Amino acid sequence: MRFLTKKIEELSSDTLICFVWEDYKQTSDLFNYLNKLSQGELIKQIETYKIFKGEFLETYKLAIDENTKVLLTGLGKKDKLTRQRFSQIVANAARIAKNMTKTNSIGIELVENKSECNNIIKNFTKEDSAKMALCSLRIGLYEFDKYLSDKKQKIETIEILENNLTKEIEHSAEIGAYTSFAMKFTKDLVNEQAQIATPEYIANVACQIAKEHKLEAKIYDKNQIKDLNMNAFLAVSQGSIHEPKFVHLTYKPKCTPRKKIALVGKGITFDAGGMNIKPATSMLTMKDDMTGAASVLGIIQAIAKLESDIELHVVCALCENMTSGSAYKQGDILTAMNGKTIEIDNTDAEGRITLADALSYCDKLNVDEVIDIATLTGAVIVSLGSNITGVMGNNQEQIDKFIETSKKSAENTWQMPILDELKDNLKSNIADMKNTGGRQAGTSTAAWFLSNFTKSNAWLHLDIAGTAYLDKSNKETLQGPTGVMIRTLINYLLS
Ligand code: BES
Ligand code: MN
Ligand code: ZN
Q: Which residue from 243, 313, 358, 371 has the fewest beta carbons nearer than 10 Å?
């Protein structure tokens, strides 16, 4: 897929997404241009036939000549248009445009929203909308057809159409294009079946990425993981015929880095639950338990392409959590890389055990911030549902900045507490802690557990168990992987 920015008169797309406000008389440059091209046909549809009102998510198809189709797309009322709604509108329009006959290229115009209140969720500029439009278009166009006999229609080109193309808009569009690539990359890897996307396979993908983007790569195999004393991670992996891999990629800018950040992604390539095996319905989507790893591998490519001035480390402990004669068991006591001991209360709480060693590993990297992203707890689905990501950490300033960035990135986050009282939930008589407590405060308890394995004073934890993978489509994303938090994380790293 190619991304271009063009002036309106230079447009060459066959299908054009043209926005109309519901309560706003002023029409856009693209609307005026297409209206003229169609001898006033666009205005007629709205004013004479009153066929199209410009309501939120409303669309209307119109062919204006043999090679040009217009998709009138409603923005709704000005004071209701949030960044998230804009993203839903664009994703929805993209899906409809793609399914129109003979669509090969889509043109889209930029929108700005200056509502009276100074609310960042509602206010956005054309630069913002360039970034959002490219991400949301690609969200709408995304389909995984690798295993379908009937391949889907492919869109070759996306054009941003704007008469006043500034350097800032061009740059923002570039960020949007690489961010949308990172999301597509991640979704493809999550969609891949677990018998193919094994630890070794993902480690090979990481190797390829390192080659292509000239990153430093350290890939540790089972024996090297042993040498690193990652016995907690190793224990989780031992029930699988697939050997674990530990991946560490580093992007270094040409200049002195503005800051150094490590991203840790949970990388369970399949979570059967271990000896505490999951019921069939809970196991159904557990190939997605490596979404964190897939996300950070997507993000580092965007950061490298954008030649960011930060130093970025990406760390993933990759393994499968299986039930077998060699699997780890309840009652086992594991010693993590940092020397702390863990009594296994439930083998299905495996993510935190692998992350314990991955976070300990990051202590040696000398970074300013550590952020982990993990499909960690079913409890976060109960608390926040499938559209809000749980955010926790040990540095309120970092948490506030992250949540603010998520709002600007059209993503939902909510902070959950990590209080010291939670340690009672995990109290063990024979080890430093157990890996699970009771049913109470499962998301916070898991985060408290993780906090024991990092020395960083700016550690942030994202629980994406509810948001990584949709069982049911929402207005923006269809059923399946979402690429959640990739937009926010890239914007956070760049800011
Ligand atoms: N990978 C799961 C969490 C999960 C659940 C992700 C649903 C996506 C959808 C994790 O490893 C897990 O099994 N957690 C257990 C922990 C429990 C045993 C304390 C859970 O949440 O049930
Ligand atoms: Mn599990
Ligand atoms: Zn898991």
A: 243
CA of 280 to the centre of ligand 1 (A): 14
In contact, 318 and 247? CB cutoff 8 Å: yes
* Token pair 């939902």: residue: 412
In three-state form (DSSP H/G/I as H, E/B as E, the rest C), the secondary structure along 40-75 is: CHHHHHHHHCCCCCCCCCCEEEEEEECCEEEEEEEE
Q: Which residues does residue 249 pair with via DSSP β-bridges, in sequence order?
A: 217, 314
- Among 77, 278, 401, 407, the active-site one is 278
pTM over 0.90: yes
Q: Mean pLDDT throughout 288-316?
A: 98
What's the CA-to-centroid distance between 62 and ligand 1, angstroms? 47
Residue nearest to atom 5 of ligand 1 (CA): 378
**What domains, with CATH codes, occur in the chain?**
2-165 (3.40.220.10), 188-494 (3.40.630.10)
Q: For ligand 1, what atom is nearest to the CA of residue 378?
A: 21
**Among this protein's residues, is 352 annotated catalytic?**
yes
**Which regions of 283-381 does DSSP assign to beta strands (E)?**
311-321, 333-335, 341-343, 369-374
The mean pLDDT value of the chain amounts to 97
Q: Per-residue pLDDT tens for 243-253? A: 999 999 999 99
Residues with CB under 6 A from ligand 1: 271, 289, 346, 348-351, 375-379, 436, 442, 465
pLDDT reported for residue 436:
97
Q: Which of 352, 408, 434, 487 is catalytic?
A: 352
**Is residue 95's pLDDT more than 90?**
yes
Atom of ligand 1 nearest to the CA of 376: 3
Cα of 144 from ligand 3 centre, angstroms: 23
pLDDT for residue 390 is more than 80:
yes
277 DSSP 8-state letter = P
Query: What is the reported pLDDT for 115?
Result: 77
Is 408 labeled as catalytic in the residue annotation?
A: no
CA dist 172 → 2, 27, 160, 168 (Å): 16, 24, 11, 6
